[in-house]
Each structure stands twice: as structure tokens, then as C-alpha cells.
Amino acid sequence: MKAVILAGGKGERAKPFSEVSPKVMIPVNGRPIIDYVVRHLVSFNIIDEAVMVCSGNEDHTTQVKSYFEGKEKLFNNKIRFIDESLGGTGGAVLSAKHLLKDQDEFLVWFGDNLIPLDINALHNHYKAGSCIGCVTVSSTRKTETGFVEIAPNGQILKFKEKPTIKLTEPECLGIYLFNTKILNYIQKATEQQQQQQKKNNSVNLSYDVLEKLPSHEKLHSYDIGETDWIDAESPTKLARNTERVKTIIKQMKR
């Protein structure tokens, strides 16, 4: 199975860093976050290749490719690069279509996510569901601020230092396992955008494709439970969560 890693994107939340480098190149302990992601993925025997879809920004793409140049053996010679030819997250996935034509299924991983996800467990869950795809979610969130417990009269009873809270609705983590027929739906959405000349032909994977799947196409969720993760959206966020990031990265080393 191939893992399609979305390594492009505008990186609005990572500015000013993303004005000169792609978000996936944010450094952690001397290595970019994309390094940890790829090492984690190729450590699973089920992943035979990591396909990085790079940004249309030539300088950003060069930075990603240059980092991995000469390091192929470190990643079991399982890395490949392609340029993003279509806009949006859906378009980025569709850019890899020619490499997925002989596949029954494939993984999609947003490159700025650090999570020690068990790919084998995700795959088993996907197989058991007989569905078109699994969306990885988390029903809890590790907060970055402290909370207080307050009595009805306003008196503070207890301080809670950065607790893990239960979410009323699970959040999507940007990691998916799809049957390759999902590419037909992405293609259809892309063609509709082109015909209507909307959003500069930018296709959002969640809202333009998955949300509009016909009812007979089942889409399942895969909850990571107590597994911690972090969206490496900016150098500032990673700096605020130094110890947490260290723990996650340690867990990603298999």
C-alpha cells in the first residue's frame, strides 16, 4: 500500500516561516517534521512507498527534495516525489492518481501531523468495515491552557493544568485510508469545479468530496483513543509544546 503525504499547502498559520519554507520543513530537534512522518510510515511493512505531493512553489518543493536527496536508504528506498498539479487537498491527492492505478487502497497523511498511529490497526479497522474509507479522528484533546472548576456562586474550587478534555464531536486528524475508487469521486468533483469555475478549481477533500459521497458508499471513522498527537501548524505551537512533542516523536520511533 502506498502512503500519499500532502507536503504542500499555503501554510497560512505558519507564517512568517512558511513564506520562505514549507510547513513540513519546520525543524524539531534538528530534523524537519516530514522526516519523522516518513520514517514512521515506512517502518510499517504494509507501506511499500511514501509518495510526497509537493507544493506548486518551486522553491518549497526544492527544499523538501533536497533534504531527502542521498538519504534514500534511511527510508528503506521507499520515497518518491510528485508535484501538486491540482488545487486543494482533494486535488493534491488526485495528483498522485497515476501512481495508484494498480492499488486497491492507499493512505493519505497530511504532512504536518505528528502522531504515533498504528497503521496496521487502522488497516484492520478499515478492512472490517467494508467501506470506501476510514477517517482518523480523536474524541479527546490535550489543551494548551489551564481550566478552573467554578461553583454556582462563582467561587473557584479547583485548578486543572492543561487537562485532556472530551470533545462533543470528534475532530478529524487529516489521516485517511481509502479504497482507490475514491479517486473517481475526487475526479468528478474536480471536473465540476472546472465547469463552474469556482474556487480556482480548488477541491477540498472533506467538504467537496467526502461530505457529498452517495449514501451507498460507507465512510467510517477510526478513533485513536488515548493516543496523543499534534498538528504542527507553526514553529510557535511546537515551541509551546516541547515536552509533548518529544514524547510523541519518541512513540513514533518503532
Q: At the first level of CATH, what is the class?
A: Alpha Beta
Largest sheet: 7 strands, mixed
Question: What's the Cα radius of gyration?
Answer: 19 Å
User: In whole angstroms, how far apart are the ends?
Assistant: 19 Å
User: Order of strands across the biggest sheet?
Assistant: 5-4-1-6-11-8-12
Which structural class is indicated by helix and strand composition? alpha/beta
> Into which percent range does the helicity of residues fall?
25-40%
**Average pLDDT taken over every residue:** 90
**How many separate domains?**
1
The total count of helices amounts to 9
Q: What percentage of the residues does DSSP assign to strands (E)?
A: 25-35%
Give an account of the 3D structure.
With 254 residues, the protein is α/β, with parallel strands linked by helices. It has a single domain, classed as Spore Coat Polysaccharide Biosynthesis Protein SpsA, Chain A (Alpha-Beta Complex), CATH 3.90.550.10. It has 9 helices and 13 strands. A 7-stranded mixed β-sheet has the order 5-4-1-6-11-8-12, with helices on both faces. Strands 2-3 form a two-stranded antiparallel sheet. Strand 9 and strand 10 form a beta hairpin. The longest helix has 15 residues, at 182-196.
